[in-house]
Write a structure and sequence with these properties.
It is a single chain. This protein is of the alpha+beta class. The protein folds into 2 domains: 80 residues, no CATH class; 270 residues, Alpha-Beta Complex (Adenine-n6-DNA-methyltransferase TaqI, Chain A, domain 2). The protein has 12 helices and 16 strands. The chain has a 4-stranded mixed sheet with strand order 2-1-3-4, covered by helices on one side. Strands 6-15-12-13 form a 4-stranded antiparallel sheet. Helix 9 crosses helix 12. The longest helix has 20 residues. It is globular, with a radius of gyration of 23 Å.
């Protein structure tokens, strides 16, 4: 209820029309079998303008509570219903949300469309373990994804009368043609499982895909129009972001830099505080992840480490990479803690910047 789209309106209603006595956050306590973040509301039919709600988080067991920061109810927003608020405004550095950089979406559903082709075929009819002239597109489900790289793939029928045009959820083909995209398991359990795809993998709703906006430049369809619109695109939606602006912003970011940040402990902490399920990670859970908005030369040390990890995992899927992952954690944390003035420093020459930013993490790792 904290993080679902439908929750914001009732949360705002409680703030305006009731007195919120107490909020008990029980994410670490199993109250029901469903893997959700439980919240207990105590409210009263009374004026809450001069009231300060009590906010408590139960840790490990019910009743073992820690008090959380609060304030006057009249000054609160729906974010008071979150146990923690780890957002860009709490960070020292300039950040951009992930949905500003990437189009974020589920993949296709390859069973037959229920209206146009009900019962004609199932997923198993169009997917095989080996490639042939019909099953010619590499295909993954969530279980085929591993940390940093996909573990394996199957092959899906493509370019026939039924595939993909008669799929239940065909999405749009350009989603699978970009040279690089990031894929994440939708149901990874407590920790995200995120990898880089450079093989134009077709994916399903068991995965969440992240495509940098400028890779979709000039492509117009109903799916993209729900997220953002070009100027002059009809019908007008002034409430949505402008595609031109998103594409310009996205050009500042490398997919491998994003992969490094998304695989960092800082991102895991953000998601842990803001996700709506203990098992699933939905597109909306990812969209507001704050990404440090830094020049390319400050992204490059992370990109180089990601390259080393990808090469190691490609050569040996069981390769030991924990030390490199730790270095990425340190680098990302350093970017998040950077003050705005340093963040806006004019980009240095590549040789000086590279040397400086390779020394610092090494010194910290000791």
């Amino acid at each position: 209820f904290c993080h679902s789209k439908y929750a914001q309106k009732p949360q705002e209603w409680f703030l305006k029309h009731a007195r919120i006595l107490r909020l008990d956050f029980c994410a670490d306590v199993k109250i029901f079998d469903a893997a959700v973040h439980n919240v207990i509301y105590f409210f009263q039919k009374a004026n809450g303008l001069c009231w300060k709600p009590e906010r408590r988080v139960h840790q490990g067991s019910f009743g073992n509570v820690m008090m959380l920061q609060s304030g006057d109810q009249k000054d609160m927003t729906h974010r008071v219903f979150f146990p923690e608020e780890i957002t860009g405004k709490n960070l020292n550095c300039k950040t951009v949300t992930l949905d500003t950089i990437c189009y974020i979406s589920y993949g296709l559903r390859p069973n037959s469309d229920e209206k146009e082709a009900k019962g004609e075929f199932t997923t198993s009819d169009v997917v095989t373990p080996t490639r042939d002239s019909i099953h010619c597109k590499p295909y993954v489900e969530g279980k085929h994804l591993g940390p940093w790289l996909p573990v394996t793939n199957l092959w899906i029928e493509w370019g026939t009368n039924r595939a993909p045009s008669r799929f239940c959820r065909p999405t749009f083909p350009e989603l699978y043609k970009v040279p690089e995209k990031i894929l994440a398991q939708r149901s990874p359990g407590p920790d995200p499982v995120i990898c880089l795809d450079k093989n134009c993998l077709v994916f399903t709703p068991a995965s969440v895909g992240f495509v940098i906006w400028h890779e979709l430049s000039g492509i117009r369809n109903k799916s993209l129009k729900k997220a953002a619109r070009y100027r002059g695109e009809n019908p007008p939606r002034p409430d949505l972001p402008k595609r031109e602006e998103l594409e310009a912003i996205s050009r500042r970011f490398s997919a491998k830099y994003l992969l490094g940040v998304m695989n960092s402990s800082a991102a895991r902490n953000f998601l842990r505080a803001n996700r709506r399920s203990n098992i699933h990670l939905y597109p909306d859970d990812w969209k507001k992840l704050p990404i440090p908005d830094v020049p390319q030369f400050k992204q490059q040390p992370i990109v180089e480490l990601v390259d080393r990890i990808l090469e190691a995992k490609k050569n040996d899927p069981s390769a030991e990479i924990s030390q490199m992952e730790h270095q990425i954690d340190l680098m990302v944390s350093q970017l998040y803690s950077m003050d705005i003035q340093e963040n806006n420093t004019v980009e240095e020459g590549p040789s000086h910047a590279s040397a400086r930013h390779h020394r610092q993490p090494g010194a910290k790792a000791g």
